[in-house]
Amino acid sequence: MFGDYGYEEEGKLGKPYNFRLLKRLARYALPYKKTVALALSFTILIALFDLVVPYLSKIAIDRYIMVAWHRVEIGRPGDSRVNDLLSRYGHLLEKGREGSFYYISNLDIKEIDPAHLRTYKTRGIITPERFYRVRPDLLSGTSLEKEIKDFHGMRDGSLLIPYKLLNTLPRKEILKIREKDVRGVTLMAVIFLFLVILSFGLGYGEHYLFEFTGQNMMQDIRLRLFDRMQSQAIRFFDRHPVGRLVTRVTNDVENLNEMLKSVFITVFKDFFILTGILIVLLCLNWRLALVCFALIPFIFGLTFLFSKMAREAFRELRTTVAKINGFLQERITAMRIIQLFVRERFQMDSFARINHQNYLAGMKQIRVFAIFMPIMELFSSVAVALLIWYGGGKVIGEQLTLGSLVAFISYIQMFFKPIRDISEKYNIMQLAMASTERIFEFIDHNQEMPEPKHPFVPPQVRGHLRFKEVSFAYEEDHPVLHSVSFEMKPGETVAIVGATGSGKTTIGNLVKRFYDPDKGAVLLDGVDLRKWSQRELHRNIGVCMQDVFVFGGNLADNISLGDEGLDTKELELAARMANALPFIQRLPMGFQQELGEGGSTLSAGERQLLSFARALAHNPKMLILDEATSSVDPETERLIQEAISRMAQQRTTLVVAHRLSTIRNADRILVMHHGRIIEQGTHEELMALGGIYHKLSKLRES
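Above: the chain sequence. Below: its structure as C-alpha cells.
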C-alpha cells in the first residue's frame, strides 16, 4: 500500500551501474562544464590553503620562534668520527670565523641520521648548547654590547649568543635583538590572515557556482521529467500512482541535488585533502608518518563497518518514514469518513504504532552514529598521543623540530575530519544514487502514444466518426469492448447508455485517443486516428467529464487553460453558450475570480458549467459529454441541455449518460451491454422495442 505513494525502498546498485548513472548525470552538467571547472579549481585552492596553514605554523616555530644553532667541535683532526661527520654532512655545516668550529642550525640537524646524531652527541662533537645568531649592530645599546668580543663569530660578521645568556635580558632588548624573528612571525600571521580572507572569498564563489550548477541541472531534470510525464499515454497513468510521479519530480530530484551540492563537493575536497596530508606527512618525517599510518587499517575497517551498519539503519528508517507518509496521505484524504464513523481513536492508535516504529529506527541510527563518532575521536586522540610520545622524544633528541611536531599534530587532526565526512555522506550517496536510478528509469520509460511519421492534418474537420470492428482491453485477457461498430455523421448527436462497466466511457477514451484499439480502427473523417496529428486531433475534440478538475488560479485561466489566443470576448461567448455566464457575473471578480483548491468555492453544478465552457472555448468540431450531467441539480441540467441543443446543430456530439432523461432528443441512442452494442435507435424506437433500454428507462423512473 505504502509503495503507491512513491516512497519505494532504494535499490542495491552495483558499481558498474552506479558508474553508468553518474555518466548519464554528467551529461546534464555538460552545459555548465566551465562553471563546474571553475568551482572545482576553487575547491582545490581552498584545500591547498587548508594544507598550507599547519605548515605556516611549522615555519613560524622552526625559523622564527625556536631558531637555534649548535656548535660542532672539530678540534680532533685524527678523530674518525669528525672526519665521518665532515664527509657525510659537511654541506649542512657552516664554518665559524675562527676556523676551529663549525655550526649547524636546528633545521639542518634533523637531516643527520638519528644513529649518527646520537654518536656525535655522545662523543661531544655536536654540543647540546643552543646559540642565537644575530648581527652585531643589533647588540648596540643592550646589556650585551660590552661582551661582543667574547661571542663566537661567523664569516658573514654575525655573532652567536648562548640562549642561556640571551634569556637573561629584559624583554625590550630581546625583542630588539630578535627583530628579524618578530618580523617573520608577523609575516606568517599576515599570510595566514590573507589566506583566511581569500579562502572565505573562494568558499563563497565555490558554494555559489556549485549551487548555480546544481539548481540549473535540477531545473533541467525537472523539466525533462515533466515533459516525459506529459508525453506518456493515459495507460501509463493508470499503472503509476500520482504520489509516485510527484516524488520523482520533487523528492528524488532534491535527493540528487543534495548529492551534487554536498557529497560530490565534500568527497572531492576530502580525498584531495587526505592525499595532500599523506604526502606532506611523508615529506616532513617519513618515520613519524609511518607510526601514524599504523592506525589507518583500523580506521578504514571501522569506517567500512560503520557504513554497513548505517546503511541498514538508514533503510529501516526510510521504510518507517514511507509508512508514515502513506498513512497520513490516506487518512487525511479520508478524514470525513474517519470523523463520520468516529474512528479517531483507532486511527490514533494505528498512527502511534507506526510512529513508534519510526522512533525506534531513528534511535537505532543515532546509536550507530553515537558509537562511530566517539570511536573516531578516540582514534584521533590515540594518534595525537602517539605523536606526542614518539615525536616528543624525537624533538628532545634533536631529530625532529618542534614546528614539525606541531604541524604533524595539526595534520593528523585534519586527517580524521574527511574520513568522518565521507562516512556521513555515504548514506546520502546511497539515497541519491537510488533516486538517480528511479529518475533515469522514468526518463527511459516510453509508453507514449505513437505519433505517425507523417501526421495527417486535414484542411477542415467535418466530424464524421466511425468505429470499425473495435475490440479493446485495459488488461490482457479482460476485454472491455468486443467488435464494436457504429457511425456518427457530421452534426449528429449520438448517446451511449448501459450499465456500469458496459464500455461507455471506454468508447469516449478511444475517440479522444487516450488509448488505441487492440483490434479494428477508429476513423475520423475517413482517416484512422493513429494517422492523425495528435495535436490537431485533440484541438478538434472538446470533452466535458463528470469529474471536473479545476486548476489553481482565476476562472478565466481555467476556461482558456493558458491559451493566449483566446481573448475576453471569446471566453464570454463560450461561457454564454454554456449558460455559465450568469453565475460568473455574480462572482465579485467575475472572470478574474480566484478559485480555491479543486474549485472548492464553486458548487458541483457551477464546476460542470465551467467544464462545459472550457470545452466550448476552443470551438471543437466534435463534443464528448462523459456523464456530464449525472451529478448536477435539475436546474443546472436544464441549462446544460439548452446549451447542448444550441450546439448540436454545429458539432458532432457523443453523449455518455446515466440519466436517460437527458438523451431523449438524441438523433440516435446506442445501448451497451458487456462491451457490445445490442440495441440502437431513437428513444421512441428503443422504448417500443421493449429491450434493455426499456428496462433501464423503467428502472430509472421507479
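The radius of gyration is 43 Å.
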